[in-house]
Amino acid sequence: MQINITGHHLDITDSIRSSVHSKLEKLQQQFPDVSSLQVILTLEKHSQIAEVITHYLGQDVTAKAKADDLYQAINDVTAKIIGLLKKQKEKVKAHPNQKPQRAEETITDADDDDDEIND
Fold it and tell me: Which residues span the domain enclosing 95?
């Protein structure tokens, strides 16, 4: 899985990079269809923001967390993205593709209806 980390108003250190990788590598085991993640870490005046963006099963999935500590924001956003991916997976499972009717079945059903009208 490819993880792209971007920092706004902060430098991405090796410890931050390893923390993000260790937390988000768990997604690969649970959701093997996720091929890439975009992680945006932002430093604001009194808060740290972590945002994760990915594409999963036909939908763009975004999670955002804000905390006083950057590592806490990374933990929170990891929990949020796992929840959102589980929700998306359940949506797809709940609506499986229906087997289309064969044309012969619809024609015979229509013929049976005509016979009832003529009787």
Answer: 2-118
